[in-house]
Amino acid sequence: MKRIYFTLCFFWALINTSALFAQPGCLVLKAGQATAATGETICIDVSVENFYQVTGMQYSLRWDKDVLSFTEVKNFNLPGLTNTNFGTPSQTGYPDQLTFFWIDQNQMPQTLADDTPLFSICFQVTGSEGDHSPLAFDPAPTPPEFLTVEAQSAAFKLSPASLYGGSFTVGSVSPDYPAITSASCPGVQTCSEVPPPGIETNVTGGMVPYSYSWNGPDGYISNEANITDVAPGAYHLVVTDAAGLSHEALFYAPAVTSLTLTNIMVTPVEGCSQGSGGSISYNVSGGSGSYEFQWNDGATIQSRAGLSPGLYQLTVTDQLLGCSIYQAFSIESSSTIRITNVEVTDASCGNTNTGAIRIQLEGDAEGAVINWSNGAEGLHIEDLAPGGYTVSVTDATGCVTTHYEEVKASDKIEFTGTAGYEDCNGPTGFITLDVPAGLGTLTYVWSNGATTKDISGLSFGAYRVTVTNTESGCQGYGIFYIKDDEFLTGTNFECTVIDEETIFAKVSTVVWGGGTPPYTFNWSNGDSMTSDLVGSTTVSLPAVLNLTITDSKGCTTIPPTVYPDCDFNGNVSDNFSVASRYRCIEDSNPSMAEITYTIWNGGAPPYTFSWSNGLVETGDKESSIMAPADAATAYTVTVTDQLGNTHISEPILPICGISGEPLSLSVADGEAVPGEQVCLPVTVKDFFNIAGLQFTLSWDPTQLRGDSLIHFSLPNFSTSNYSFNPISAQGNGEGILTIAWTNSTGLGYTLPDDTVLFELCLTVLGDDEGAEVVISNQPTLIEATTGTLQVIPVITDDGTVFITGNDEKTVWPGDTDQNGLVDHFDLLNIGLAYGAQGFPRPEQDLSWEAHFSAPWPQKTPNTEVSFQHIDTDGNGTITANDTLALALNYRWFNEQWNGEDGYNKRENLPAAARTAAVPLYVDTYPVAEGSSGTFDIMLGDDANTNNTVYGLAFSINYDPLAIVPGSMRLSFADSWMGNNGEDLLTFYRDDPDHHMVHVAMTRIDGEDITGAGSIAKLLITIEDVIFRSNDIEIPISIEQARLINSIEEAVPVDVRSSVIVVNTTTRTLDESLDRQIRVFPVPTQNRLYLKTPNLTVKNIELFSMDGRRLREWQGQPSELFLHDLPQGTYSLRMITNEGVAVRRIIIFNGER
Fold it and tell me: pTM higher than 0.70, yes or no?
């Protein structure tokens, strides 16, 4: 859903900004209360209070689908408000909701009297006597948002609102429900960074005592009657009385941004003179939109021109909200020196002389004289009190460049903290604060009443802390969340068709956030596995699968039930998208029509079409019948696909033999390439004295996407006369445009032949050679009426979009950087593109083969990879779900890849501005053999603390003879790069064949982060049986590291090797064990003999010197055959009942 604030900005620029009046109070929406008997139809009003100067809004309504069945909305009381402003979401999880979106198309804000209904929503009652249903406002799937016009400034602002739900009871008597009758307006308009005050409730009715359940943004929960410290967002409240009856309300508290200056442009004076050619321009954003400007020279206008060199200081004040912002501008002469890279450190709370300013010079700075207004000299001044400081730089020619900066007195205490929990049994959550030293005496006040720095024994929920300096009064705020066992999971399945009766589905579920790995996946078919990322199982269809995932702390989650539904091409079936039309047969008596029914997509073709007149036939797309068109007989068709899925059409009523000259409607053909927009003219002939016209346009939504209508020729024709993808009993309406027009004068209207009624603009999504656009009877019948109220026949001619340039299938799911290989580096592009939306693929699966996709307009900044390759699951939105393809297709290589372009661009990114390399290494410490160790993976160190990064991919190389195979694991908890599953995606794979672990991590918010320290933890187990001396050193190194910022520039990285010191014992390997083992001959050509008369050998392994295991023998062989091994040195490891011995052997292939 678009944010309506941005939609309306253009419209408002066009309206008359005449004087407006102050808003009288908080905007309120309220749903009514009603009763009715089973089978009756009931309509409930949604009315308003304080509805003043509103220009747009959106929200969602919810009811109990087992009690009420939605039928329609009506009784509209806003300009342009029609059925097209409502939608029924098609995604799973919202079967009982209505979404609403409206903007004032007439470009005038609207004011309604209190208790005016916005609209009425109607239902058929399906529940039983005594059943209850709420009619509640919900925060999803369409979040609440209300846009109004500020009274004095005529500027847009997001306004707070209180939305009170209604109730319905089956029967004649409504019980005494509790009612939320009043509440404080959620949030206040403020420029400060202190969170707005809370929401106060007033509940009446029902049976006391009441219980309260709040849910808000970022996992906020509360059971209090009133909540405080409200952050911006939507807050959902359920009040339940002692009798179990409840009332729901939704409160919307918008964010109000601070004032900022943007698009600043300062023009210097030409030459080293005191001329007046300088200028200053800028834009103001944030606040209410009503600003006052005050310059230090007395000017009160926004932008300036005709300025001499010097310092110009500006204060911008928000006239409504009271806050202000200060900015200094320096008009320079044309000096050879520029002042750049200015860094200002504000004075910390409690100490007024800790500020600093650092500058750099560009240009011919040799011999330059640098003077500060406090008497200091040089590029760096420190120990500064709060205040303004001006620097003057005089170059060798005498031209002076000045610059002004302000050191502010910080009134905030900055701190961080760590939140977590020990296990899922009971209140085991904890929060540990990290507060810098030297801030004096501090007090801590937590929202749960605690007054200690750190707290523990916490239940799941949100906890706010206020830290106060007792001497200065400075404060800091923080909100921490003890999260429950909320796992972020995604499921995909791929189908394999053996024959018409044998179909298998491989179902895979990935955990990309939540819990603590490794995870155990227990499938309902009995399969079980443990993995750090993904669990899979294969079943024969039909099948229903349930899954329970348990993490290492015992926390569990149950993802939604999986119903694998495959067609015989191995693709997932979808809802049916359809079109119907008929053509009258000329000169037939009685009147006859050819009726055609088309399946655009959905199900598993071929289809069986069973018509109500008895005809049954099979086809891959459509079926037609010849039938009497007497305006009395309607026809239906039942469509059945190969898997037994059925679809029943709406009645089709052909009307032919109508007297009068027929009107002709024609859709033109067009041509476009995938991703390109094409506009098809819809033209008319014999359009004489027409007072009304309606029809439907239909197309395959997997091939074409309807965008807009342009170039209208009919009077009074506007957006209210057409609807893309309308609500329909036949499905979600994708691929449908309904048209309904009547002349508001009631008179007929005439157009010349070949006049364009309008142009339909569509974007090509698919790769079919031709995509039809047909004039259809569903859901809106084809009908034309004259000014004398005569219905006349309509002759139609369909159009086709010919799709060209569609030969290439270039998307390989998982290869996001187009280098032909799926690996951990592919996660970086998902981070760069996260949240982007574009064209969905016609086939949305993850199989490792080439897929067609329309090109997206968005590309990565420097490697210029189209986002179509990053949308690995093909659903048109880049999310964490797209990491599933990396897990499923990891290390797959595209054998058809024939270019170096993707690889070369990735390896040759432009360098970031930073010159010093960021250290990357494993921070080790001594461990004992046979023990486990947890080592921090460090990015940055004490000497490199200011590291600005976005994404990182690298590999860790380890000694396979020293580390237990399969013991390598990573944890990304407490990473300074972000919180895994929130603003950070992570991925790693153990690669034992190459004794490496491949790791990637990336932010997803588009913002770089700065810091230093641990970004992950490496967990390993040291072998206890391979060492032959004390204090063995195990090398562990970082390789193939790639570090990028948010604009895809390469940040230099300094990879370092580390050593794990192992303190060994001799309890499993000593000289007496060696004396009992004979291995000969060494060197050897193809065979070794083994003598161990007094030992029991359990297992023998042969390793290459790079750590790869090449051979394995079980039991106690006397000969070891080494055929086909290349010449070289190898390591032989023998596990016996008394310990393990390691021998080095040499194989040669030629004569000695």
Answer: no
